[in-house]
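Kindly review this record before class:
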Amino acid sequence: MLTYHSHNISGTAYAQNDHVALATDVEALHAAGARIVPLDEIADGVARGSIDGSGELIVGLSFDDGPVFDYYDFEHRRFGPQRSFRNILDDFGARHGMAPPHATSFVIASPEARAAMERAEDCGYPDIDAWLRDGWWIEAAKSGRHAIGNHSWDHVHHAVATVALSSETRDDFSRVDTYADADAQVRHAGEFINAKVGQRCSLFAYPFGHVNRYLVEEYFPGRHSEHRMRAAFSVARGLVPPGCPVWNIPRMVCGEHWRDVRGLLDLLHVA
């Protein structure tokens, strides 16, 4: 499971730019014989206790936070034109005469939270209007090759004036440890996203990758009829292990767990 952030751009080299990294990585994965599959397929395999790959390398692609850069090209004020993640995957498919690899963008639901993050200097793009807008979600969802996932109501982000959390702590999703807080951050977010895209969003990604026992062992499995998620993804180094719980599927993050293509292939045990 691999994760990229389309707003991670601090230069034009692989380690500084997730767009460069994604374009390089999909070519390397293809050369290594990997099969890139939708996250739904991985979630199904984890739920039944096995991922049927017949020994092949199976990879899922996910993008976090939901910038429009996931879907549309844009001009970076310092580093020039940037190819969107969607178009990078489309370009790859065209080069190899195949359908583009599937990916899932995990988006933040709250319009107020997204607006606050857009204006925050430390989030990177206060000069670009509405770079976290939600207008592209429905087009992506209807494409059949770019799913929209749930990345919580407000990411309990420090840039947001009021978050849906009983604690005053920010940037720590592990503090979502009561029914009321989880309901606000998961179910309410899912319902908002569903209404925007016109179909059910069923995959959740923990903000910051933060998990706790309440969410993994109580809320997600015990309140399924309410939140209607079918899997949740955290952050951890390494492959999806045997017996992995469906409410805590690990993902590796570009720039955190690897910083060049050789590092990625080493993590995937590719010679």
Remarks:
- The mean pLDDT is 96.
- The chain has nine helices and eleven strands.
